[in-house]
Design goal:
The complex is a heterodimer of chains A (about 250) and B (about 70).
Chain A: H1 2-18, H2 33-49, H3 52-62, H4 67-87, H5 92-99, H6 104-113, H7 116-123, H8 128-140, H9 144-151, H10 156-164, H11 168-176, H12 184-189, H13 195-205, H14 210-218, H15 222-228, H16 237-246
Chain B: H1 6-9, H2 16-19, H3 23-52, H4 57-67
Classes of the chains: A mainly alpha (about 250), B mainly alpha (about 70).
Protein backbone atom coordinates (compact mmCIF):
# COMPACT_ATOMS: atom_id res chain seq x y z
CA UNK A 1 0.00 0.00 0.00
CA UNK A 2 2.76 2.41 1.00
CA UNK A 3 4.72 1.63 -2.18
CA UNK A 4 1.68 2.46 -4.29
CA UNK A 5 1.34 5.87 -2.62
CA UNK A 6 5.05 6.46 -3.10
CA UNK A 7 4.79 5.74 -6.84
CA UNK A 8 1.84 8.11 -7.18
CA UNK A 9 3.81 10.85 -5.43
CA UNK A 10 6.77 10.19 -7.72
CA UNK A 11 4.56 10.50 -10.81
CA UNK A 12 3.41 13.95 -9.63
CA UNK A 13 7.03 15.04 -9.20
CA UNK A 14 8.25 13.60 -12.51
CA UNK A 15 5.35 15.28 -14.34
CA UNK A 16 6.49 18.57 -12.85
CA UNK A 17 10.09 18.08 -14.02
CA UNK A 18 8.98 17.20 -17.56
CA UNK A 19 6.23 19.83 -17.60
CA UNK A 20 3.53 17.34 -18.61
CA UNK A 21 0.29 16.34 -16.90
CA UNK A 22 0.43 13.50 -14.32
CA UNK A 23 -2.37 11.80 -16.28
CA UNK A 24 -0.07 11.35 -19.27
CA UNK A 25 2.32 9.33 -17.06
CA UNK A 26 -0.38 7.12 -15.56
CA UNK A 27 1.34 4.00 -16.99
CA UNK A 28 4.16 4.57 -14.50
CA UNK A 29 1.88 3.66 -11.57
CA UNK A 30 3.02 0.04 -11.80
CA UNK A 31 6.71 0.98 -11.59
CA UNK A 32 8.51 0.69 -8.26
CA UNK A 33 8.83 4.06 -6.50
CA UNK A 34 12.60 3.72 -6.04
CA UNK A 35 13.02 3.21 -9.79
CA UNK A 36 10.79 6.22 -10.48
CA UNK A 37 12.82 8.35 -8.11
CA UNK A 38 16.10 7.24 -9.69
CA UNK A 39 14.63 8.01 -13.12
CA UNK A 40 13.39 11.45 -11.99
CA UNK A 41 16.86 12.28 -10.70
CA UNK A 42 18.38 11.16 -14.02
CA UNK A 43 15.95 13.39 -15.92
CA UNK A 44 16.60 16.32 -13.56
CA UNK A 45 20.36 15.94 -13.98
CA UNK A 46 19.97 15.69 -17.76
CA UNK A 47 17.99 18.92 -17.89
CA UNK A 48 20.29 20.77 -15.49
CA UNK A 49 23.45 19.60 -17.22
CA UNK A 50 22.16 20.55 -20.66
CA UNK A 51 23.47 23.96 -21.76
CA UNK A 52 25.93 23.79 -18.85
CA UNK A 53 28.82 25.49 -20.66
CA UNK A 54 26.70 28.50 -21.58
CA UNK A 55 25.27 28.67 -18.07
CA UNK A 56 28.73 28.53 -16.51
CA UNK A 57 29.83 31.42 -18.73
CA UNK A 58 26.74 33.37 -17.74
CA UNK A 59 27.49 32.72 -14.05
CA UNK A 60 31.02 33.98 -14.67
CA UNK A 61 29.74 37.07 -16.46
CA UNK A 62 27.27 37.70 -13.64
CA UNK A 63 30.24 38.33 -11.33
CA UNK A 64 31.03 41.47 -13.35
CA UNK A 65 27.61 43.01 -12.80
CA UNK A 66 26.70 44.82 -9.55
CA UNK A 67 24.18 42.82 -7.46
CA UNK A 68 21.36 45.44 -7.60
CA UNK A 69 21.65 45.59 -11.43
CA UNK A 70 21.85 41.81 -11.65
CA UNK A 71 18.73 41.41 -9.51
CA UNK A 72 16.85 43.76 -11.84
CA UNK A 73 18.03 41.88 -14.94
CA UNK A 74 17.17 38.59 -13.26
CA UNK A 75 13.62 39.64 -12.58
CA UNK A 76 12.91 41.63 -15.75
CA UNK A 77 14.72 39.53 -18.36
CA UNK A 78 16.29 36.28 -17.22
CA UNK A 79 13.09 34.93 -15.73
CA UNK A 80 12.79 32.16 -13.16
CA UNK A 81 14.09 29.26 -15.29
CA UNK A 82 17.44 30.84 -16.14
CA UNK A 83 17.88 32.10 -12.56
CA UNK A 84 17.17 28.61 -11.22
CA UNK A 85 19.72 27.04 -13.55
CA UNK A 86 22.42 29.60 -12.73
CA UNK A 87 21.76 29.55 -8.95
CA UNK A 88 23.77 26.38 -8.47
CA UNK A 89 26.72 27.81 -10.42
CA UNK A 90 27.32 31.19 -8.76
CA UNK A 91 29.26 31.92 -5.55
CA UNK A 92 27.10 31.34 -2.50
CA UNK A 93 27.50 34.87 -1.10
CA UNK A 94 26.75 36.32 -4.54
CA UNK A 95 23.65 34.12 -4.91
CA UNK A 96 22.35 35.11 -1.49
CA UNK A 97 23.04 38.79 -2.16
CA UNK A 98 21.00 38.70 -5.36
CA UNK A 99 18.24 36.46 -3.95
CA UNK A 100 17.64 38.88 -1.07
CA UNK A 101 16.84 41.61 -3.59
CA UNK A 102 14.21 39.63 -5.49
CA UNK A 103 10.48 39.83 -4.83
CA UNK A 104 8.97 36.78 -3.04
CA UNK A 105 6.59 35.95 -5.94
CA UNK A 106 9.54 35.86 -8.35
CA UNK A 107 11.63 33.85 -5.88
CA UNK A 108 8.73 31.41 -5.56
CA UNK A 109 8.86 30.88 -9.34
CA UNK A 110 12.64 30.38 -9.17
CA UNK A 111 12.15 27.88 -6.35
CA UNK A 112 9.74 25.89 -8.54
CA UNK A 113 12.46 25.47 -11.20
CA UNK A 114 15.35 24.95 -8.80
CA UNK A 115 17.06 21.68 -7.94
CA UNK A 116 17.56 22.12 -4.18
CA UNK A 117 20.41 19.59 -4.25
CA UNK A 118 22.44 22.03 -6.33
CA UNK A 119 21.64 25.24 -4.47
CA UNK A 120 21.27 24.08 -0.88
CA UNK A 121 24.09 26.35 0.38
CA UNK A 122 22.26 29.41 -0.97
CA UNK A 123 18.84 28.23 0.19
CA UNK A 124 20.07 27.70 3.75
CA UNK A 125 21.40 31.29 3.93
CA UNK A 126 18.36 33.14 2.66
CA UNK A 127 16.85 35.21 5.52
CA UNK A 128 14.00 33.56 7.45
CA UNK A 129 11.48 36.29 6.65
CA UNK A 130 12.16 35.91 2.92
CA UNK A 131 11.73 32.14 3.06
CA UNK A 132 8.45 32.51 4.95
CA UNK A 133 7.20 35.01 2.35
CA UNK A 134 8.14 32.58 -0.43
CA UNK A 135 6.46 29.70 1.40
CA UNK A 136 3.35 31.83 1.72
CA UNK A 137 3.35 32.50 -2.02
CA UNK A 138 3.92 28.82 -2.87
CA UNK A 139 1.05 27.83 -0.56
CA UNK A 140 -1.17 30.41 -2.26
CA UNK A 141 -0.28 28.77 -5.60
CA UNK A 142 -0.88 25.33 -4.05
CA UNK A 143 2.60 24.35 -5.22
CA UNK A 144 3.02 21.51 -2.72
CA UNK A 145 5.76 19.80 -4.72
CA UNK A 146 8.11 22.78 -4.47
CA UNK A 147 7.34 23.27 -0.78
CA UNK A 148 7.99 19.58 -0.19
CA UNK A 149 11.32 19.68 -2.01
CA UNK A 150 12.59 22.47 0.23
CA UNK A 151 11.59 20.95 3.55
CA UNK A 152 14.63 18.70 3.28
CA UNK A 153 17.00 21.61 2.71
CA UNK A 154 15.95 24.20 5.28
CA UNK A 155 16.92 24.46 8.96
CA UNK A 156 14.27 23.36 11.50
CA UNK A 157 13.29 26.87 12.71
CA UNK A 158 12.71 27.89 9.08
CA UNK A 159 10.63 24.79 8.36
CA UNK A 160 8.58 25.44 11.49
CA UNK A 161 7.82 29.05 10.53
CA UNK A 162 7.18 28.17 6.89
CA UNK A 163 4.68 25.45 7.74
CA UNK A 164 2.78 27.90 9.95
CA UNK A 165 1.56 29.61 6.78
CA UNK A 166 0.30 26.34 5.23
CA UNK A 167 -3.19 25.07 6.09
CA UNK A 168 -3.90 21.47 7.15
CA UNK A 169 -4.91 20.09 3.72
CA UNK A 170 -1.83 21.74 2.22
CA UNK A 171 0.41 20.22 4.86
CA UNK A 172 -0.92 16.74 4.08
CA UNK A 173 -0.22 17.28 0.40
CA UNK A 174 3.33 18.49 1.15
CA UNK A 175 4.00 15.41 3.31
CA UNK A 176 2.76 13.22 0.43
CA UNK A 177 5.42 14.52 -1.97
CA UNK A 178 8.34 14.86 0.45
CA UNK A 179 11.49 13.45 -1.11
CA UNK A 180 12.68 11.93 2.13
CA UNK A 181 9.66 10.29 3.76
CA UNK A 182 11.74 9.34 6.77
CA UNK A 183 11.60 13.05 7.67
CA UNK A 184 7.82 13.06 8.07
CA UNK A 185 7.89 12.14 11.75
CA UNK A 186 10.55 14.77 12.40
CA UNK A 187 8.58 17.43 10.52
CA UNK A 188 5.51 16.54 12.59
CA UNK A 189 7.61 17.13 15.73
CA UNK A 190 8.14 20.74 14.59
CA UNK A 191 4.41 21.47 14.46
CA UNK A 192 2.54 23.11 17.34
CA UNK A 193 0.39 20.96 19.63
CA UNK A 194 -3.00 20.32 18.16
CA UNK A 195 -1.82 20.49 14.54
CA UNK A 196 -1.85 16.69 14.22
CA UNK A 197 -5.51 16.64 15.25
CA UNK A 198 -6.16 19.29 12.61
CA UNK A 199 -4.56 17.11 9.95
CA UNK A 200 -6.75 14.15 10.91
CA UNK A 201 -9.86 16.32 10.84
CA UNK A 202 -8.89 17.72 7.42
CA UNK A 203 -8.42 14.20 6.04
CA UNK A 204 -11.83 13.15 7.32
CA UNK A 205 -13.48 16.05 5.52
CA UNK A 206 -12.05 15.44 2.04
CA UNK A 207 -11.76 12.05 0.35
CA UNK A 208 -8.93 13.35 -1.89
CA UNK A 209 -6.81 13.69 1.23
CA UNK A 210 -7.22 10.07 2.28
CA UNK A 211 -4.17 8.81 0.40
CA UNK A 212 -1.88 11.62 1.68
CA UNK A 213 -3.20 11.11 5.22
CA UNK A 214 -2.73 7.32 5.18
CA UNK A 215 0.73 7.78 3.70
CA UNK A 216 1.61 10.26 6.44
CA UNK A 217 0.35 7.86 9.14
CA UNK A 218 2.46 5.05 7.66
CA UNK A 219 5.59 7.15 8.21
CA UNK A 220 4.93 8.19 11.82
CA UNK A 221 7.11 6.87 14.60
CA UNK A 222 5.62 4.77 17.40
CA UNK A 223 5.28 7.65 19.90
CA UNK A 224 3.30 9.77 17.45
CA UNK A 225 1.18 6.79 16.39
CA UNK A 226 0.23 6.42 20.04
CA UNK A 227 -0.83 10.08 20.11
CA UNK A 228 -2.84 9.80 16.91
CA UNK A 229 -4.82 6.63 17.76
CA UNK A 230 -7.53 8.33 19.86
CA UNK A 231 -7.99 10.96 17.13
CA UNK A 232 -9.00 8.37 14.55
CA UNK A 233 -12.38 7.77 16.21
CA UNK A 234 -13.68 10.97 14.64
CA UNK A 235 -13.00 9.76 11.08
CA UNK A 236 -15.57 8.34 8.64
CA UNK A 237 -15.80 4.53 9.01
CA UNK A 238 -13.90 3.46 5.90
CA UNK A 239 -11.02 5.87 6.43
CA UNK A 240 -10.94 5.06 10.15
CA UNK A 241 -10.54 1.34 9.44
CA UNK A 242 -7.74 1.92 6.93
CA UNK A 243 -6.01 4.42 9.22
CA UNK A 244 -6.17 2.02 12.16
CA UNK A 245 -4.77 -0.79 10.01
CA UNK A 246 -1.97 1.53 8.83
CA UNK A 247 -0.70 2.35 12.32
CA UNK A 248 -1.59 -0.85 14.19
CA UNK B 1 18.96 12.12 -37.96
CA UNK B 2 17.25 9.35 -36.03
CA UNK B 3 15.66 10.43 -32.76
CA UNK B 4 17.53 9.31 -29.69
CA UNK B 5 15.98 6.69 -27.46
CA UNK B 6 15.27 7.32 -23.80
CA UNK B 7 18.37 5.39 -22.72
CA UNK B 8 20.54 7.29 -25.21
CA UNK B 9 19.27 10.61 -23.91
CA UNK B 10 20.10 9.55 -20.36
CA UNK B 11 23.56 8.20 -20.96
CA UNK B 12 22.74 4.57 -21.65
CA UNK B 13 21.40 3.38 -18.31
CA UNK B 14 17.76 3.11 -17.20
CA UNK B 15 16.40 1.91 -13.84
CA UNK B 16 15.03 -1.66 -14.07
CA UNK B 17 11.38 -0.61 -13.73
CA UNK B 18 11.70 1.92 -16.55
CA UNK B 19 13.58 -0.53 -18.77
CA UNK B 20 10.72 -3.00 -18.27
CA UNK B 21 8.05 -0.63 -19.64
CA UNK B 22 6.38 -1.28 -23.00
CA UNK B 23 8.30 0.22 -25.90
CA UNK B 24 5.61 2.81 -26.66
CA UNK B 25 5.69 3.92 -23.01
CA UNK B 26 9.47 4.37 -23.07
CA UNK B 27 9.01 6.26 -26.34
CA UNK B 28 6.50 8.57 -24.66
CA UNK B 29 9.03 9.33 -21.92
CA UNK B 30 11.72 9.91 -24.55
CA UNK B 31 9.43 12.36 -26.37
CA UNK B 32 8.56 14.19 -23.14
CA UNK B 33 12.24 14.52 -22.19
CA UNK B 34 13.28 15.70 -25.65
CA UNK B 35 10.48 18.31 -25.68
CA UNK B 36 11.46 19.52 -22.21
CA UNK B 37 15.10 19.88 -23.31
CA UNK B 38 14.13 21.80 -26.42
CA UNK B 39 11.81 24.13 -24.49
CA UNK B 40 14.52 24.77 -21.94
CA UNK B 41 17.25 25.45 -24.51
CA UNK B 42 15.01 27.92 -26.34
CA UNK B 43 13.98 29.74 -23.15
CA UNK B 44 17.57 29.99 -21.92
CA UNK B 45 18.90 31.26 -25.24
CA UNK B 46 16.21 33.95 -25.48
CA UNK B 47 16.72 35.07 -21.88
CA UNK B 48 20.51 35.23 -22.22
CA UNK B 49 20.44 37.29 -25.40
CA UNK B 50 17.78 39.66 -24.10
CA UNK B 51 19.65 40.04 -20.77
CA UNK B 52 22.68 41.58 -22.48
CA UNK B 53 20.59 44.57 -23.51
CA UNK B 54 20.10 45.48 -19.85
CA UNK B 55 23.78 45.29 -18.88
CA UNK B 56 25.20 48.82 -18.40
CA UNK B 57 26.99 49.91 -21.61
CA UNK B 58 30.36 50.21 -19.86
CA UNK B 59 30.25 46.54 -18.83
CA UNK B 60 28.65 45.12 -21.96
CA UNK B 61 31.90 44.33 -23.78
CA UNK B 62 33.40 42.50 -20.80
CA UNK B 63 30.19 40.59 -20.16
CA UNK B 64 29.84 39.66 -23.83
CA UNK B 65 33.41 38.35 -23.79
CA UNK B 66 32.86 36.36 -20.58
CA UNK B 67 29.71 34.75 -22.01
CA UNK B 68 31.61 33.97 -25.21
CA UNK B 69 29.48 35.97 -27.62
Amino acid sequence: MTENYASRAEILKLARVLDVTPERLEYLARVDADDLRAFREQVTDRLFDANLTVLQRMALAARLIPAPVLAKIAEKVFGPLLCARIAGLVDVSRGVDVAKRLDPPFLASVAADLDPRRASAIIARIPLETVVAVANELARREDWITLGRFVGHLPDPTVRRSLDVVDDPGLLRIAFVLDDKSRIDHVMSLLPKGRLAGLITAAGADEQLWAPALDMLAHLGEARREAVRPLLDTLPGDLRDRAQATIK
Amino acid sequence: MAERTLAEQLGGYLPVGIEALEEHERQDLADALRDARHRQAKALAEAGEEGLRYVPALLRGAVRKAVGL
